[in-house]
Fold each of these.
Amino acid sequence: MAFEDILVERKGAVGVVTLNRPKALNALCTPLIDELGQALAELEADEAIRCIVLTGSEKAFAAGADIKEMKEKSYADVLDEDFITGDWEVVAHCRKPTIAAVAGFALGGGCEVAMMCDMILAAETARFGQPEIKLGTIPGAGGTQRLTRSVGKSLAMYLCLSGDMIDAETALRAGLVAKVLPAEGFLDEVMKVAETIASYSLPVLRTCKEAVNRAYETTLAEGVLFERRTFHGTFALEDRKEGMEAFAEKRKPNFKHR
Ligand code: CAA
């Protein structure tokens, strides 16, 4: 289906969603978030897709929630709508692997949406920040929580309380970002990572992602037990057998995603 504020492409087994409100630096207005939810649901349901890339423009991944849309809302409005978290969490709930490909600004809700993805790959032009404090408010889509878990208290406090931005290299050192890539040919390099991920068995990708995410929600002992049982569970899959047989026979595995 055609969207107004995003573009959706299927490149082999990779779904690419591009935030596309260039005049507003991809500010995340409600219609855009609705479209993003629909697009992700379609890609989730598409059996041919095994990895999803979420990206923006060269100038901005997204400059945050749409301030112009938000500015007239009352407390009762945002409470009634459960503004931000209710709808936005679709990105975090995606069951296929997701990559945020960030060039330019990832601020406020932009940084928060990037952090909802499984990993962030950054162009060297990327800038991350939670500048809500400058607007008289605080992050509302997980910024204080996911950022703190990702980079630790001191840098999270610095970003949230000062409103300052960090560059891609700083984000890499802090663990917010998995890789920094040259701005030139950035999306081609991201696609190589996405295609590698998409070449693996989808049920194994799903369970692997669940196991990593478990680390955020539980104790080490429970997490390790969850991981071990999930690892055992892969032995019920044809693809686990195929992967090990292919290794022993020195050939490429032919995963059936079963
Ligand atoms: N919402 C609405 N419009 C925005 C926007 C936003 N978050 N960010 C940028 N825009 C608009 C600007 O208003 C401007 O529109 P006009 O041309 O109609 O004036 C256009 O995008 C281009 O922006 P600038 O002229 O400001 O571009 P710049 O290069 O000079 O500055 C910037 C870039 C530093 C990112 C600056 O635009 C900026 O500070 N944006 C706001 C960032 C921000 O505060 N984000 C947090 C939002 S609140 C939030 O996200 C809450 C949450 O936790 C979910």
Amino acid sequence: IKITFTPVLRASRETIGLILVLQDVTEEEKLDRQRKEFVANVSHELRTPLTTIKSYLEALDEGGAMEEPELASRFLQVTRQEAERMTRLIHDLLQLSRLDAKNVQFHKQALQPKEILQNAGDRFAFQCRQKGIRFQLSIEDNLSRIYADRDQIHQLLDNLLSNAVKYTPEGGCVTLSAQQKRDGFVEVAVSDTGIGIPKKDLERIFERFYRVDKARSRLMGGTGLGLSIAKEIAEAHGGSIHMESELEKGTTVRFTLPSCEPEVNQP
Ligand code: ADP
């Protein structure tokens, strides 16, 4: 709390009172702290792949790895992976900053959610099969149309589905489902039977760069920004997003999007 005193003076400059202002700066300080943390995180996240690239290139250049073609090709592969990680990170950062600045041009139109969900399902069914994960699609027939930007909703679904695939081991199951809610919203859920998230991490999971296990996320090629982008997109459409999870049992992320024709959905 910030406290300021201002004396109240008579014309004769005699003090006749004091104005005491108590200002709650908790929110302000929180935002300031978050901003500083974000800059520190970005720097760290960019420096880590750069350091790796530099050391592998040095090893190739000076360490004689060039003479061993197999080793050289492995080193080059690592540098390429790290460069790709940086590209993904910068892509995600740019998207977040555009969403933050509210200058994303949303091309919202009336869309059939079923079609979008089936489309996402098709893309991920293949990835799941490759990893030995069962994929289920469960979409209600009576979904009303949503007023949304197709590309943004694709991105939102991609972020959630790619997490579900990433954090679910072979033999598991990923489900994409959707249902009409009575309050004029369509609710979409992405569930998995993967590693889950500890209770203590759940409330911070949508924060930028927040990760349960940094090493695992890096290993999976993650940027730590996927869920925060998903949240921004859902909220920019007038919806909301929530996560439920149980460690070693699985995770469900639900988000809602408003229907175009709310009057049709009234009970
Ligand atoms: P990342 O690029 O690290 O996956 P996200 O923002 O998409 O970043 O997710 C943040 C963190 O939330 C992940 O690092 C992971 O710890 C956790 N997480 C997200 N989705 C899942 C999931 N389906 N199952 C288990 N953990 C998850």
